[in-house]
């Protein structure tokens, strides 16, 4: 009886030892693993291009008056040759007299075909300020006076009026052009002065 109790106690002890010595299985980690984000990091915004300021348009320079397409007269031996046409034009825009000349001659040729009564030309020399008044008075003087008022003190010199195919000349003292200018040469035939004139000076 004693032996049986002792064996039973030993069996119980082994059972307790076996039960108590078993380690419990590790608890499962229920923490969700950290997820790595695959969303790319936002790229920094590119700087906006600098604002372009449009400069106000530069005003175009004023267009200068068109220069005459006519040449200056050729002067040789204190004289020059100029022409008038049926188109109511001189062929030169200016006459420059050398200061060494004691006298000067302008030879005028009418290269057109129209008669003197319809398209007559002459050459008159005067101060620019007096040109219009001389032309107005010359128109009143008429063809017999070559469209120049007789004894007009404002006129430095003048030629006769000629028609197509004709020539004439006028000689004068260029010293009269050295002061009080500017001076012009022009045609005093009625209606021609607006288109037939040019500058004349002494240098």
TrEMBL record:
NCBIfam families: azurin
Ranges annotated as biased composition (Low complexity): 24-40, 65-74
InterPro entries associated with the record: Azurin (IPR014068), BlueCu_1 (IPR000923), BlueCu_1_BS (IPR028871), Cu-binding_ET (IPR050845), Cupredoxin (IPR008972)
UniProt biased composition (Pro residues): 41-64
The entry's keywords: Copper, Electron transport, Metal-binding, Signal, Transport
Domain Blue (type 1) copper residue range list: 77-203
GO molecular function: copper ion binding; electron transfer activity
Family matches, as PROSITE patterns: COPPER_BLUE, PROKAR_LIPOPROTEIN
Region (Disordered): 21-75
Domain of life: Bacteria
Name the record gives this protein: Azurin
Cleaved signal peptide residues: 1-20
């Amino acid at each position: 009886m004693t032996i049986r109790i002792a064996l039973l106690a030993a069996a119980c002890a082994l059972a307790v030892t076996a039960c108590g010595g078993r380690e419990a299985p590790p608890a499962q980690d229920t923490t969700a693993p950290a997820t790595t984000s695959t969303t790319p990091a936002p790229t920094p915004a590119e700087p906006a291009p600098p604002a372009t300021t449009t400069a106000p348009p530069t005003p175009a320079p004023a267009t200068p008056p068109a220069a005459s397409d006519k040449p200056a007269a050729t002067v040789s031996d204190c004289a020059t040759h100029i022409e008038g046409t049926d188109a109511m034009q001189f062929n030169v825009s200016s006459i420059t007299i050398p200061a060494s000349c004691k006298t000067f001659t302008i030879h005028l040729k009418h290269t057109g075909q129209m008669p003197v009564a319809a398209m007559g030309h002459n050459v008159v020399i005067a101060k620019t300020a007096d040109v219009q008044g001389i032309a107005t008075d010359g128109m009143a003087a008429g063809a017999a006076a070559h469209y120049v008022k007789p004894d007009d003190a404002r006129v430095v010199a003048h030629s006769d009026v000629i028609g197509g195919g004709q020539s004439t000349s006028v000689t004068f003292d260029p010293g009269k052009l050295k002061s009080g200018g500017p001076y012009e040469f022009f045609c005093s035939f009625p209606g021609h002065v607006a288109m037939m004139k040019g500058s004349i000076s002494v240098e």
